[in-house]
Amino acid sequence: MPLFKSPTPGVVIFGTSILSMVDGMGAFKNNALNILEENGIKNIKPNGLYSQQKFLNSLKVIYEKLGDVTIKVIGMKIPEKVQLPPSIESTEQVLNSIDRIYSMNHKGGECGSYKFTKTGKDEGIMVVDTPYPCSFDMGLIEAFMNKFREDGSITFIKHFSEECRMKGASTCEYKVKW
Questions:
Q1: Residue stretches of the chain with pLDDT short of 50
Q2: Model-level pTM greater than 0.85?
Q3: Does the domain spanning 91-177 belong to CATH 3.90.1520.10?
Q4: Residue 153: per-residue pLDDT
Q5: Rounded to whole angstroms, what are the CA distances from 12 to 55, 90, 101, 111?
Q6: Would you kindly state where each structural domain of the chain is located, as residue ranges?
Q7: Which run of H or of E encompasses 177?
């Protein structure tokens, strides 16, 4: 899936995701709000619906100006505001639920996906085909895993193959361990 391009015109996302991006900018929140406004997003309400493409345009500007680390921090903020089903009690369950959670926060058409396959006791592969950059997705996945991390365990995520959306591939595969 091409990066920073909504796969379906008209897809919208909830304001909570956009506000997470603003929070991820830390001391530069006003810069984030200015970039969003320049791209047609203003007066953000948590339950409001906003153009995914306008959000992606804003994220691309931030990526080009500030790079991967900032985008990863933004991705890590998303799980802080997302409501999870109460039935999720483990890292494996949340990894299996990320696609559903993602779809619940995007409306109006195809928006990409997260597909998890368990490959060992505490490890697996996550295949991602969203229009968001790798650092965003890796931050998001890591933060979801950290929500259910057992004391003393360490979460781990890295590219599993050479194929990468940042290099033109349609998907990225990440090895995850917890």
A1: none
A2: yes
A3: yes
A4: 86
A5: 9, 29, 14, 9
A6: 12-81, 91-177
A7: strand 172-177
